[in-house]
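Re-run with default settings, no changes from the original entry. Doing this only to confirm the output is reproducible before filing.
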Amino acid sequence: MTLVMPLFALIIVLFGLVRRVPVFDLFLEGAKDGLQTLYHIAPAIMGLMFAVSLLRASGAMEALCQMITPLADAIGFPAEIVPMALLRPVSGSGATALLLSVFSDCGPDSFAGRVASVLAGSSETTFYAVAMYYGSIRVKFTRHTLPAALAADFTALVMSIVTVRLFFY
């Protein structure tokens, strides 16, 4: 299994050599294009990382969670997952850390742990994906992409509760 990637690279190089393609020159050209793409998306990614750090350090995320928790309790959404639900569209690694926190506090087989698992698997890091994809092709106006993606994230949130209640409780 550890040889899959080296063998795959070797097959590509051999195929290129057999067809008399300048493999190394094309590799360098691809690397150059990759660096140019990185140059274009780096500001958006750095801004997103700064915003996430600012939300966490300022306490705004905790304040928002405290405001939403009573509503979450009223509709049957586990309060332990509110921070993860808010952070998931912005930061995948932050949401994963909160998922592990839910696992350690409530247990992976608890209602909150199962809802958090389904939510993690069915939602997207929306702002990161939009910043990456639109930044790489230099699109500044996303039109309906962001509202549609956030609606999909909200749908994933609701359906994670419904799915866990339907199949496990």
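The chain has eight helices and no strands. The mean pLDDT is 88.
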